[in-house]
Amino acid sequence: MALSKEQQTKLRKLMPLVVLYPLSTGIGIISTLYVAGEINHSYPASEALPVTTTQNQPANSTTPSPSISNSQKQLEMEKINALKSQIALLKVQLQALLAESSSVAGPNQQGTPPSGAVAPSSSQAPTTTPRPTATTPPPTHATTGASRALR
Amino acid sequence: MHSDRSPTSLFVSTFTAMATSVIVSICSAAGATRLEESVKKIKDVFQAVEESCSRFDGLSDLSRLNQTPEIWHNPSAPCFYAIREAYSAYQATRGLFDPRILSDLIALGYKESWTEGIPDPRCAPPLADRVPLEEWKPEFTENNGVRPGGRPIDLGGIGKGLALKWSAKAISASTSNFLIEAGGDCICSGTGPEGNGWDVGVQNPHQPEGDPVMVLRLSNHAVCTSSIAVRSWWQNGALRHHLIDPATGKPGGPGLAAVTVVSSDPARAEVWSKALFILGETKLIEFSESEGIAAAWITDRGQVVSNSFMDEYVTWKSLVQ
Q1: From the DSSP assignment, how many helices (H) and strands (E) are in chain B?
Q2: CB-defined contacts A:B, below 8 A
Q3: Does residue B2 sit within a domain?
Q4: Does residue B153 sit within a domain?
Q5: What's the pLDDT at A108?
Q6: Exposed end of chain A (fewer CB within 10 Å): N or C?
Q7: Is the pLDDT of residue B51 over 90?
Q8: Angular region, B212: left φ>0, alpha ψ -120 to 50, beta rest
């Protein structure tokens, strides 16, 4: 059955997709298998992510992506965490010297320091970069603590 | 180990996996493309572990295995190795770490991922301690066969520890100076951006958004913390948390708010942080010193304590307690 001009035009536009889509999918599969193979050959199984190579292995089901909410709060948390890390690292890089801070636990002091505030001692000359003191921690590259679960 | 004394670019990337943020910091002169490839490898590792080991995903290998733990299964390699690692940890901690507390977690209301919301406060768990679990004797075969034996298991933090371990290995061929932080657990390699190590703050569980209580300087170490700062909830007037004492089936850790452990292996650091927490404040110091475990802990009254093995890494400790 002959196609109309309009149908022929639409078909000509779709033809590249019909060819390119399976081609790109095939390239993606091949490169994934190649990378997985490289990882498997590079490291001992006990140290590296184990790659399943045994027979009689039940076919792994295609699991859906983790059901994590894509709420705005989740995205903001990610941005905040990344920015916090970058800010902490920039602070360290700007400091010329870091004084070694005392690591001995002393007697309890009255009150608690303001969170995140830098309070130079009155006996020290003001400096442009904060120095760790008894109540001011030095900048850090990371934090260990409760898993910052995304709520 | 290569020591990088000259300033190099610091590359930081963040993504979400295992219901938490994963932050990758790499010191390298490599271009952005190669660094992104490293991050992609880490993402792939976390995704593989989560897909196979999450108890919150009904289609994961672990979930399927937990439906019939008394029979033989052939899970994917990450799940198999995670269970084997869990059993090794069970033996090393003499049962203080026991992944068979899944039923207890569910009884306390912790049925869904924390991202879905806190446990149901109306859930009424049993008031009496349950009897201690029988000895765990899972069986393994050389071709990834496993029979967990009797009870469903929760791989919990050990899965995250293994994801960190395998991620570090995956990128170690292309970079030797990096830090990977995943939900409060970290693994680092090399000398950091300034050439004298990576500085890791220990979170104050009583003021999670405030200053750390301690700063550790690490080079080729992992550090993990078990804490009740986030995963705790009220239930029928009682405070519950997710760190279950296998002996009783109830939240453990009398007198403690958080325990931090430094080790060369992130999975072992995770296991020992949990096991030491379960022990509680009065038994923790003697046990950790005798076992040679670098540990620090914060009590429920806010006291910050570190043992002699941990003191080697401490560069700053808060005097305000």
Answers
A1: 8, 17
A2: 242
A3: no
A4: yes
A5: 36
A6: N
A7: yes
A8: beta
Q: pLDDT-based confidence at A142, cuts 50/70/90?
A: very high
Amino acid type, B242: H
The helix or strand, by DSSP H or E, that contains position B283, with its residue range, turns out to be helix B281-291
Taking the CA of residue B78 and the nearest CA in chain A, the distance in Å comes to 6
Do residues B141 and B155 lie in contact, with contact meaning Cβ atoms separated by under 8 Å?
no
Does residue B3 lie in a domain region?
no
Contact between chains at B203 and A143 (C-beta distance less than 8 A):
yes
Contact (CB<8Å) A140/B25: no
Contact B23 A51 (CB under 8 A): no
The minimum CA-CA distance between B132 and chain A, rounded to whole Å, is 28
Q: How many domains is chain B built from?
A: 1
CA distances from residue B233 to A91, A140, B200, B212 in whole angstroms, order as listed: 36, 30, 27, 23
Are A135 and B320 an interchain contact pair (Cβ–Cβ within 8 Å)?
A: yes
Question: What per-residue confidence (pLDDT) applies to B133?
Answer: 86
For residues A106 and B319, give the distance between their C-alpha atoms in angstroms, rounded to a whole number. 6
Question: What is the CATH classification number for the domain harbouring B72?
Answer: 3.10.520.10
| pTM of the full structure | 0.70
Per-residue model confidence as pLDDT tens digits over B201-256:
999 999 988 999 999 999 999 999 999 876 666 666 677 777 888 888 888 899 99
- Dihedral (Cα; B301, B306, B307, B310), 10-degree rounding: 150
Tell me if residue B8 falls in helix, strand or coil. coil
Q: Which residues are CB-neighbours of B101 under 8 A, at least 6 positions away? A: B154, B244, B246, B249
Candidate from B181, B201, B205 with C-beta closest to A146:
B205
Distance of residue B41 Cα from the nearest chain A Cα, in angstroms: 9
* Mean predicted confidence (pLDDT) in B113-117: 54
pLDDT at A96: 44
Torsion of CA B50, B53, B55, B60, to 10 degrees: 80
d(CA B4, CA B28): 9
Strand partners, B3: none
**pLDDT tens digits for range B259-316:** 999 999 999 999 999 999 999 999 999 999 999 999 999 999 999 999 999 999 999 9
- Residue B276 and residue B269: Cα distance in Å, rounded? 10
Within a domain: residue B74? Answer: yes
* Domain residue limits at B304: 9-127+136-317
